[in-house]
TrEMBL record:
Residues 657-885 form the ABC transporter domain. This is ABC-2 type transport system ATP-binding protein. The keyword Calcium does not apply. Keywords: ATP-binding, Hydrolase, Membrane, Nucleotide-binding, Transmembrane, Transmembrane helix, Transport. One of its GO terms (molecular function) is dipeptidyl-peptidase activity. Belongs to the ABC transporter superfamily. The lineage of its organism: Bacteria, Bacillati, Actinomycetota, Actinomycetes, Pseudonocardiales. Residues 230-278 are annotated as: Disordered. The chain crosses the membrane at residues 12-29, 620-640. It comes from the Bacteria. Residues 261-271 have a biased composition (Pro residues).
Length: 955
């Protein structure tokens, strides 16, 4: 006993030291400041119209003014089809951060006058230059010089291109943050992914070859917006955002079960009834003519190509040498990752500093959410307020395969540089061999029926387990050639645009006449043969000429840029089709022979990095203190472990848990656990069931080594479990409050916890645990913002770190609402399906019955029943009969000897049969002319529990 007291004293002192360290760290904690006050001022700004400037147009604008002025200014542009109202949330957030923000409706949208010129330097860009003049005259704006405001420009999609074009033509712009936008409008709307030229060594380099294939679906959507009506330029603000949450319980990553098609908030005012709009709507005539040509012929003339190029940031990026934050979506069939890749290369070559961010959203996946918008604000603060030099870098989101309520889990990977920009850090390409012989494919007359890869507006919709678009991809037989890899030995994280060399030949002279239009896509094929088309993206290829003699032409194809973890055991499949519904297909019937070039492989880009925690400097200081405390605890537990280590037990090493004659008594005569014995088999979900005070939590605390038993043993995989036992490393637990630090993000809390275990980071399996727990991008938010349900899920994720062989959870559904409880059931079942074991303590009988395969019932510290749930509930003589005549059935059952408590309910009759068998009761019913549709036991786990507890009480 003296030795035990000294040990306890040391433990108490140790805990006191740790709490002191944590308490000192919490001195740094401060509440989030209240949102800054923002005032607004509407304005109608006159601008000279067009290159001749012989006419005035009016732009409808709102200025958002921060508390303290003068302040640096942000010019905020909206997406195509939107208006100043589409970006009011973004404007207010930037103003709260201390910027004077001018949001405006571009010409032809909202209440602004003028015609749409597609970001022409002579129109929209010139308009924006005049808005800078206007800002320079406002007293709320800080100046760098005469008529030169300290200025940042940002916007998404159409507005993102405007920020690039303005930066390339007006030297007064100091920093930009273009989002989900294009580099070359010709390549965005008429792309060609097949080339014979050498490719850049950046992760998402596109071929950008001439004479592409018209992207008719997206172009048609955009043209319709210029006719007046709802907007589609960037995902609507009230729809789920790709790095935010729609409520306290779900970290949304681009959708939910009820996600809407993409489109911004209702911004533009529809044309007035008196406004006469022709077939070109609000477009300039030359824009209308170019679209008409593309829509009717499927190809772009040189005049149309020049028009699109002149509206492209690529025309001016050689002039951009200012800090640039490039944000691009990984779910975007309109403006893919190759567009941002080209912009990053061009600005870097011009001397600008570029930081590139790929996020799990885009035109098909959701608007930039609060976290990402916060990064944009941070970028402008560093450049315009703190005037710190810009640093490059690269970060990308990895979307998990498992979904929680329609939202995937997300982890963010950071790298110090975007590979290939400096010429010395080229992208790593992994060679994956493909199998497949030469195959013949046919282009049907008119290009119809056509294969399906993506449908604008539907790509963002999700079910509870996947994106709708993943299930829509269809390659029609006879029109596609497939080349498939072997099963992968290890996970392959595709990070960008894969490359493949194709060999194409015409099957006859007629087929050679018009060259070939083909579409390449890369599938992720599961072990069961299920195919997923990541990003719903496809690479169109136009080969202008094919030899009439059937000789092949080799072409390098850059596949769409994606971020996709392809797991071990799965395969990559390259599919090459002759048609695609989203594009203008070749109308002439033709036949081709397609094979892989000599290397018979695909080159897959990978970018290594570290998972970011988003930890602030203050958080880092606190983290250091807590980590030291946890480290001290780990050191002391190591000493205790060596002293308490028992002999290894050779027998029953296959059993996750064996408890024998376990008891725990406290001074005063209280016995919390009394001679408890049971075992758990691998793969079971075992429910430890009992009322409050039954001894469940005490049992689990003894299992985890938090307290010592009075007598008895606990063996985990054959090894004695107790304080500091090495075998505890195979257990993940949530038994008592997790004690998360509220000022740190969820992920930072998990990383600190794992650091305290002293185990290698690569063994943590952070991504897998977060996928199973289903927190989504909310893991990057501070824990203080979490609801009780989210804290509970974070605790589950912590318990799952390292993917332990035995998972022990005490009341895991506390604080969860019914949908989340249902989700938790699936999480636990899925975890057990991997061969691991789960022990769940609960007083909720219905949850144990629906979640667990086996049950141990405790009452007053003692075991009163154990076994499979269906066996525990099957005892007794209660039965239910579904019949056609409940009155007649009730009369028949009431006449039988020993039958009691006959009750009718709808088309069912319930009865306690006593010694009468269910089969005998059915015979009697049928003999009396009662049709029995169904017969079964009535007893539920609740009935069994109440009976067992009642019997134990009486005994």
């Amino acid at each position: 006993m003296p030795r035990l007291r000294r040990s306890r004293t040391r433990n108490v002192l140790l805990v006191g030291v740790i709490l002191a360290v944590a308490g000192a760290a919490l001195v740094w904690f401060r509440s989030e400041p209240a949102a800054a006050q923002v005032s607004t001022r509407d304005a109608v700004i006159d601008v000279q119209d067009g290159p001749n400037r012989n006419q005035a147009n009016q732009l409808d604008a709102t200025m958002y003014v921060p508390e303290q002025t003068p302040a640096p200014a942000i010019l905020l542009a909206h997406g195509f089809g939107g208006s100043k109202d589409s970006v009011q949330q973004e404007a207010r957030e930037l103003a709260e951060r201390g910027f004077t923000v001018l949001a405006y409706s571009a010409r032809g949208f909202g209440r602004s006058t003028g015609e749409i010129a597609l970001n022409s330097p002579d129109y929209e860009v010139a308009d924006a230059g005049q808005l800078i003049d206007w800002l320079a005259r406002q007293p709320e704006v800080e100046l760098d010089g005469q008529n030169d405001p300290k200025l940042g420009v940002t916007g998404a999609s159409y507005g993102g291109a405007l920020s690039l074009l303005l930066a390339g033509t007006d030297e007064r712009v100091d920093a930009i943050a273009p989002m989900i936008t294009y580099n070359d409008l010709e390549q965005a709307l008429v792309p060609n992914a097949g080339t014979t030229a050498e490719l850049p060594n950046t992760p998402a380099a596109g071929a950008f070859a001439d004479n592409g294939v018209f992207k008719q679906s997206w172009a048609g959507v955009f043209f319709s917006q210029g006719l007046g009506g709802a907007s589609v330029g960037s995902p609507r603000s009230e729809a789920p955002e790709a790095d935010g949450t729609t409520d306290d319980e779900s970290g949304s990553a681009g959708g939910s079960d009820t996600a809407s098609p993409p489109g911004p908030a209702p911004g533009p005012s529809p044309p007035a009834a008196t406004e006469q709009l022709g077939p070109c709507g609000r477009f300039l005539p030359e824009i209308c003519a170019a679209y008409t040509e593309l829509a009717t012929t499927g190809e772009a003339s040189e005049q149309t190509k020049q028009l699109l190029r002149s509206r492209s940031p690529a025309a001016v990026t050689e002039n951009i040498d200012i800090p640039t934050l490039l944000v691009q979506g990984e779910q975007d069939t309109l403006f893919g990752l190759d567009q941002a890749d080209a912009t990053a290369r061009q600005i870097t070559e011009a001397g600008g500093t570029v930081r590139t961010v790929w996020y799990a959203g885009g035109h098909d996946g959701g608007a930039p959410g609060p976290s990402l918008r916060g990064k944009v604000a941070d970028w402008f603060t560093a450049r315009l307020v703190d005037e710190r030099p810009a640093e490059g870098g690269f970060e990308y989101d990895v979307e998990g395969a498992l979904r929680a309520q329609g939202s995937p889990s997300i982890r963010t990977v950071t790298a110090p540089e975007y590979p290939g920009l400096t010429g010395s850090d080229a992208t790593s390409l992994q060679t994956v061999p493909l199998r497949g012989q030469e195959q013949a494919v046919v282009n049907p007359p008119g290009g119809n029926p056509a294969s399906i890869s993506s449908i604008p507006g539907l790509n963002s919709l999700v079910t509870s387990s996947s994106r709708i678009a993943d299930q829509l991809a269809v390659d029609l037989p006879g029109q596609s050639a497939q080349f498939t890899s072997a099963e992968l030995d290890n996970q392959l994280l595709v990070t960008g645009s894969a490359q493949v060399r194709l060999r194409v030949a015409a099957a006859d002279q007629n087929s050679a006449a018009d060259g070939a239009v083909l579409f390449a896509k890369l599938y992720d094929v599961g072990s069961n043969g299920t195919r997923v088309l990541p990003g719903s993206a496809v690479a169109p290829i136009r080969i202008d000429e094919l030899p009439a003699d059937g000789s092949p032409v080799d072409v390098t194809v850059t596949l769409p840029g994606i971020v996709r973890p392809v797991e071990s055991g799965q395969r990559l499949q390259l599919s090459v089709t002759t048609t695609d519904q989203a594009y203008a297909n070749s109308a002439n019937p033709a036949s081709y022979r397609i094979s892989l070039a000599d290397d018979q492989s695909i080159q897959v880009p990978t970018v290594r990095g570290e998972t970011s925690s988003g930890q602030s400097p203050t958080g880092a200081l606190i983290g250091i203190g807590v980590t030291l405390g946890i480290g001290a605890l780990a050191a002391v537990l190591g000493v205790l472990r060596r002293r308490a280590r028992g002999k290894d037990v050779a027998e029953r090493t296959d059993l996750p848990l064996v408890i024998e004659n376990l008891s725990k008594a406290y001074p005063g005569g209280l016995t919390a656990v009394d001679q408890l014995s049971f075992s758990v088999e691998p793969g079971q979900v075992l429910g430890l069931l009992g009322p409050n005070g039954a001894g469940k939590t005490t049992t689990l605390r003894m299992l985890m080594g938090l307290i010592s038993p009075t007598e008895g043993t606990i063996r985990v995989f054959g090894h004695l479990a107790g304080p500091g036992a090495p075998v505890l490393s195979r257990i993940g637990s949530f038994v008592e409050g997790a004690g998360f630090l509220p000022h740190l993000s969820g992920q930072a809390n998990l990383e600190l916890f794992w650091a305290g275990t002293g185990r290698p980071t690569e063994q943590a399996h952070f991504a897998e645990a977060l996928e199973i727990a289903g927190l989504g991008d909310a893991v990057h938010r501070k824990v203080r913002t979490y609801s009780q349900g989210m804290r509970q899920r974070l605790a589950i994720a912590q318990a799952m770190l390292g993917l332990p062989d035995l998972l022990v959870l005490d009341e895991p559904t506390n604080g969860l609402d019914p949908p989340q409880i249902h989700q938790m059931r699936e999480v636990l079942r899925q975890y057990a399906s991997t061969g691991r074991t789960v022990v769940v303590s609960s007083h909720l009988l219905a949850e144990v019955e629906q979640t667990c395969s086996h049950v141990v019932v405790m009452h007053r510290g003692r075991l009163i029943a154990e076994g499979p749930v269906n066996e525990v509930t099957a005892g007794g003589g209660a039965a239910t009969f579904r019949v056609d005549d409940t009155a007649a059935a009730s009369a028949v059952l009431s006449r039988l000897d020993g039958v009691q408590d006959v009750v009718t309910e709808a088309d069912q009759v319930h009865a306690e049969l006593g010694d009468t068998s269910r089969a005998e009761a059915v015979r009697e019913l049928v003999g009396e002319g009662v049709a029995v549709h169904q017969a079964g036991p009535r007893r539920r786990l609740e009935d069994a529990f109440l009976q067992l507890v009642g019997e134990e009480t009486e005994g």
